[in-house]
Design a protein that fits this description.
The chain is an alpha+beta fold. The protein has 24 helices and 30 strands. The protein has an eight-stranded antiparallel sheet with strand order 3-4-1-2-7-8-5-6. Strands 11-12-13-14 form a four-stranded antiparallel sheet. Strands 17-16-19-21 form a four-stranded antiparallel sheet. Helix 3 crosses helix 4 and helix 3 runs antiparallel to helix 6.
């Protein structure tokens, strides 16, 4: 990476009293050519250096390093780790503040609620207010910034179990990187870094310090607890020590401090590696800038939106804890918005179900993300990609050198491909559980970008490359200057990149002069290199009329450039002519070409916009006007209005017509406690099937219901949805009625409902909607009743077991009255008889002796009997409660001889009783008496 010891104005910095000792000053080749004495000194230095090369000498970096070169990176490494811990502390304080703001009067203190949450997650009683927690947890969470899992290790009675979760803490890591960068930059203000070796050695010292300090402190602050468990204790350890802790933090510290020290380097010309990389793969040294711009544009807007959504939906706890989850969530949303997917492996339901499953989740999957949010995320991804293309067109202008290098096409796409691979590791959240304390079990789960994300990123890299080459040049100079500068970077960084590009354009001559960069070095003449034309970014540059190869010196026109066969060296970073002039590029387009490209870009952009709008309109209409929730809302509205007929048309109950008898507007409209209101919550769509989740309010109780929907036809371009009867409609329930024998009509909610008349009791099952159903059995006889109405309370979401109504017949008091009248009428008829033993009567008088001695019998009822009636099925039995009394008056011949007869009046009384059965047929009684 190019760097300089000069300020942005190109002026050399004056050494201060604390500067380290610098190497002997070198003289530029141009000065050597004008001063033979200086040239002689340079030649002598070169010969002396060659002579010393044959003997032993220390590494080139070490002789120039002082004590300050060692303790500055050490302090930067310490500061990096301290910054990481401070970032965790800030996140913890804000999270606790969010819990405190949410607290209610009966919720207890914030610490108590935090203890409850930890106890619910781990099953252990904890006290987070203890000193051990305060001194341990921040350091363990800081270690998670190195992408290592936070592990909970339990041991009890010789057995053990462990569980861990990996959630990268990128905010804390960013705090550490920024702290290390600032410390290294500030403390190296008066320091000269003579070579790249010194720069990277100092960076390595900083990385080692950061990683070693993190490793030691994490090990020393492992949380150890003894939790009481019955008669013993469970030993608990909470630690984030892991194999990745040291290498990850070493790499982070290395790169952070190397970037901070980049401006302190006194190397005046690009090195061999830098020039070689730029020459073979143009733009490789600036390839990270468009990626950083794309993620910065997307992440800023998406992060703000997610934060607002967290406060709105999750309240203060979710919003104030965003420092823990927001960075990785923005990364996930970035992957999803680029039309890739997240892969969820396992399931967090039970240890036995955590493994063996993997599901891909797209931005539009399951209907969990609103349509407008999906559209905005994709549009934001497109805008960020355009910004990346503009940046790429600025930092790597399309000159002839780039256009003639085939590998230039691959630089950005390959980098995006590698970034896609890197996201599989950087954006992974996972966990595991293993152990034998509650039985042998092992489980893992993870959520990360899908494996094909690298291929999706590769496609986006190709798209951005095409935009930067073919579309962006037509409008890149029309953007506001501040926007352009923000995308392409500072003039100083662009000027230094121009020096590297000029050196790469010099070809072999440049590489020959890289041996002693910035020192007057004799070099062989370079082969010819193609001359670059003036840049489209600099219309004032004179265009080159030919594309034929020219001398390599044409690629660099600064004051150090030679001519003819003179010695050529790499251009210098401190050369004002090189830092202010960008590499010559293609000739500016003529107005007609520019107009044509602009027109094509407008047409293509319009087509893309129309396609996006058409997609958005189609998606919105598919989920609104033609969405499954419309049918669900129509069904719920009909049920709420008591329109059972229309509800049955929307959602066919798939039962016989007899079972639909109660699905009429008359019956259901008269039902009490129907569904009074409803609310559609969300809709989950999975291909041709969907589930509409809603809540219904019935009798003051709100109940969730899930309505299954299916699409098996289309309404033009849109899917036609209907209720999936095969999956069952939760609003429909069953009501069973036991119909007595001989009954042909029921009374339901005051309406007559016909049923089949049968000689035996039978059961009828009805399909009904939620509400109260008052059911009664109408009797066709004044002597029989089946009791009053019975009410069945059908509730939405109630168990599937159907309520059963049973009706048993009973006899009315009219039966006993009419029975008594008929029996008394029989007694009166018998009393009219002139026979001593009336036929068919419950009373009589047996004559002793000669029948001729008895005459003139007269019966009279002295007292009628009373009866009691009991029911047995559809028959009644009666018995005498109190016997009646009948009197017989007659004449008896007391003369024993035949002549003359002596008739005397006599009388006698007898009791009257009886029992028997009574059959009821309508309003007729059939009495079967047994005297």
């Amino acid at each position: 990476m190019p760097s300089s010891a000069h300020d942005p104005a190109g002026k050399a910095r004056e050494p201060g009293p604390d500067d380290t000792e610098e190497l002997p000053a070198t003289t530029s080749p141009g000065a050597a050519r004008h001063d033979p004495g200086v040239q002689h000194d340079l030649d002598a230095q070169h010969d002396a250096a060659a002579a010393r090369g044959s003997g032993h000498r220390p590494p080139a970096a070490l002789p120039t390093m002082t004590a300050r070169h060692w303790w500055v990176p050490v302090l930067a490494g310490v500061g990096g780790y301290v910054g990481t811990v401070v970032g965790i502390v800030i996140a913890l304080v804000l999270s606790i503040l969010g819990l405190a703001l949410q607290g209610d009067s009966d919720g207890g203190s914030t610490t108590d609620r935090l203890n409850d949450k930890i106890s619910n997650a781990t099953g252990l009683d904890t006290d987070t207010s203890g000193l051990r927690w305060i001194l341990s947890v921040p350091f363990q969470l800081a270690a998670m910034a190195a992408l290592v899992p936070l592990r909970l290790i339990l041991s009890f009675g010789g057995e053990g179990a462990s569980a861990g979760i990996t959630v990268p803490q990128y905010f804390a890591l960013a705090c550490g990187i920024l702290t290390a960068w600032l410390i290294a930059r500030k403390l190296s203000t008066r320091m000269r870094v003579e070579t790249r070796g010194v720069q990277w050695l100092m960076a390595a010292v900083s990385g080692l310090t950061w990683a070693a300090l993190a490793l030691v402190v994490t090990a020393l602050t492992v949380l150890r607890l003894d939790v009481p468990f019955f008669a013993s204790d469970i030993r608990v350890r909470l630690t984030a020590l892991g194999g990745g802790l040291f290498p990850v933090l070493f790499l982070v510290g290395l790169l952070s401090v190397a970037a901070a020290l980049n401006v302190r380097s006194t190397q005046v010309s690009p090195g061999r590696i830098v020039v070689g990389a730029e020459r073979s793969t143009p733009g490789v040294l600036q390839v990270l800038r468009p990626i950083a711009v794309q993620f910065a544009v997307f992440g800023t807007v998406a992060g703000l939106g997610l934060l607002i959504y967290a406060f709105v939906e999750g309240g203060a706890p979710a919003g104030f804890s965003a420092l823990f989850w927001l960075p990785i969530t923005v990364g996930w949303l970035f992957v999803l918005s680029l039309l890739s997917a997240l892969t969820a492996g396992g399931a967090a339901t039970s240890l036995t179900g955590l493994t063996g499953r993997s599901d891909a989740f797209y931005l539009w999957s399951e209907g969990t993300v609103p349509v407008w949010a999906v559209v905005l995320c994709i549009l934001l991804a497109l805008v960020s990609a355009v910004c990346a293309a503009i940046t790429w067109a600025h930092v790597r202008p399309l000159d002839k050198r780039v256009a003639r290098t085939p590998l230039a096409w691959t630089v950005l796409p390959v980098t995006y491909f590698l970034l896609g691979l890197l996201t599989l590791w950087l954006l992974r959240v996972g966990g595991y559980a293993s152990g034998g304390m509650v039985g042998s079990s092992n489980a893992v789960f993870s959520l990360r970008p899908a494996g094909w994300t690298c291929l999706v990123f590769l496609v986006w890299g190709v798209i951005i490359e095409l935009l930067a080459r073919l579309v962006v040049p037509a409008f890149m100079h029309t953007l506001p200057r501040r926007v352009t500068r923000g995308l392409r970077g500072s003039e100083r960084s662009r000027g230094r990149a121009a020096v590297v590009a000029s050196a790469a354009a010099m070809g072999g001559a440049g590489l020959a002069g890289a041996g002693l960069a910035g020192v007057g070095t004799r070099a062989t003449p370079a082969p010819e290199a193609p001359a670059a034309t003036s840049s489209a970014q600099h219309p004032s540059a004179e265009p080159t009329a030919t594309t034929a190869p020219q001398d390599a010196t044409a690629a660099y026109s600064g004051p150090h450039a030679g001519s003819g066969d003179e010695t050529r060296v790499l251009p210098s970073y401190d050369d004002p002519g090189a830092t202010t002039r960008m590499p010559a590029q293609r000739a500016p387009m003529d107005p007609a070409t520019k107009k044509r490209i602009r027109l094509i870009a407008i047409i293509v952009g319009t087509l893309i916009l129309l396609a996006v709008l058409a997609t958005v309109v189609f998606s919105v209409l598919s989920r609104t006007v033609f969405g499954p929730d419309n049918q669900a809302e129509d069904l719920l509205r009909s049920v709420t209005d008591g329109n059972a007929t229309h509800a049955a048309e929307i959602a066919n109950p798939n039962v016989s017509s007899g079972q639909r008898a109660l699905l009429t507007d008359d019956v259901y409209g008269a039902a009490q406690n129907r569904i009074s209101s409803y609310e559609i919550k969300d809709t989950t769509i999975d291909g041709d099937r969907a589930t509409v989740n809603a809540t219904v309010t019935q009798d003051g109780v709100t109940t969730p219901v899930a309505l299954p929907m299916v699409s098996d036809s289309r309404d033009g371009l849109f899917k036609s949805w209907r209720v999936d009867e095969s999956a069952g409609v939760p609003l429909y329930q069953a009501l069973t009625v036991e119909v007595p024998a001989g009954v042909g009509e029921l009374d339901v909610n005051g309406k007559k409902v016909s049923v089949d008349t049968q000689g035996q009791p039978h059961t009828v099952e009805y399909t009904v909607l939620p509400g109260d159903y008052a059911v009664g059995v109408s009797s066709s006889s004044k002597y029989v009743t089946y009791g009053g109405n019975q009410v069945a309370e059908i509730r939405a979401g109630s168990p599937s077991s159907a309520p059963v109504m049973s009706f048993q017949p009973s006899f009315t008091p009219a039966l006993e009255e009419d029975l008594t009248k008929q029996l008394n009428a029989t007694l009166d008829r018998c009393a009219q008889s002139t026979e001593f033993e009336p036929e068919g009567c419950p009373f009589g008088y047996s004559v002793y002796g000669d029948d001729e001695d008895y005459r003139n019998p007269r019966w009279s009822i002295q007292r009628y009997p009373t009866y009691s009636v009991s029911s047995y099925g559809n028959q009644a039995t009666f018995t005498t409660d109190r016997s009646g009394e009948v009197r017989l008056d007659y004449q008896y011949n007391e003369e024993y001889d035949d002549e003359p007869a002596d008739w005397t009046d006599r009388d006698t009384t007898s009791s009257v009783s009886g029992y028997g059965t009574v059959s009821v047929s309508g309003d007729e009684l059939t009495i079967n008496a047994n005297d």
